Amino acid sequence: MSGKKRSEETTPEDTAHLSHAPEHDISEDKISRVGGGKMQRRLRRYNIRMLIASVAILMALCAVLLVRIQDLNGTIGNMASQIARLTGVAAQQQEELELLRTLTEELSAALEEKLSDGGKEAAGKKDGQAGEKSVEASTPGITAAHKVYLTFDDGPSDNTEEVLEILDRYGVKATFFVVGNQAEQEEEMLKKIVEAGHTLGMHSYSHKYSELYASVESFAEDFTKMQNYLEEVTGVKSLVYRFPGGSSNTISEVDMKEFARYLDGQGVCFFDWNISSGDGGSYLFPAETLIENCTKNVSKYSTSVILMHDSASKSTTLEALPTIIETIQAMEDTVILPITAETSPVQHIKWQENEG
Ligand SMILES: [Zn+2]
């Protein structure tokens, strides 16, 4: 009984003591030692298994983590490209907004001008209208309430001859704002324009916005070249100018007022337009549209400057021109005239010092 109890309660001290114990106890001791060894082995095996299991679990976790990280990387990559795309879209929308804003500004400026043009009684204050009155006074015989100026930009071209023929047919004088570098092949046309009694205006020598509007110096260089060239070919010094893109163009980074003041200093007047035929873009509008655009507002203005283009691709302008002239000639108290240095200008921008 006592031996059994001892074996049950074996401790390291007991084991030491047992080495001097009587014979009959040894087998029990052996048994307990053998049992302890088994336990230890089992424990070791258990520990090893646990260790292996832990390592396996850790590796599995690492693998899962790696997969997740890769997933996340992919997601982040996707998000980055989406953000880049959205940024691009936002930038584009910003640009479109800016464009809309300038267009709105231009429109409201044009509307303002038209409204003030409409109120004829309120004239006098504006330089333009004061000028217009003096023209009326200084041009005997022209007392019409509505003066219409047909203007053709970008020529001479393959169409010029036909434009001249149509104008001649209706006994109408117009204004050609020509471009210098392309007139070199059409110098005969420049002479014909002048000989037929039309006004030869300048539309720059190069018509290259980036060069022309780079600085006042480059503008002056182009202007001088153009004015001299036209005088050499035709013997006439041109005194009227139309800015490529108009004075309200949004391409020039130099304030257009500076160019306007330069021209003024040269004794040259620039003309924009208050009626656009719509033939300026790359889309070719049908003749009916051009006729409608050119004629519908003429009776609202005392001065109508109509913008058209003289260039080979503008076939519908040629098509529309006879009807445009006929329609205007049929209007009451309306006359078609060429622009002269004395014509009251239609200008999109205010550039004189006192006009702010
Ligand atoms: Zn042009």
UniProtKB/TrEMBL annotation:
The chain crosses the membrane at residues 48-69. Residues 146-336 form the NodB homology domain. GO terms for molecular function: hydrolase activity, acting on carbon-nitrogen (but not peptide) bonds. The keyword Membrane applies. Coiled coil: none annotated. The keyword Hydrolase applies. Residues 1-32, 114-135 have a biased composition (Basic and acidic residues). It is an enzyme of class 3 (hydrolase). Its EC number is 3.5.1.104. Keywords: Hydrolase, Membrane, Transmembrane, Transmembrane helix. Pfam families: Polysacc_deac_1 (PF01522). One of its GO terms (biological process) is carbohydrate metabolic process. This is Peptidoglycan-N-acetylglucosamine deacetylase. Residues 1-33, 114-137 are annotated as: Disordered. InterPro entries: Glyco_hydro/deAcase_b/a-brl, NODB_dom, Polysacc_deacetylase_ArnD.
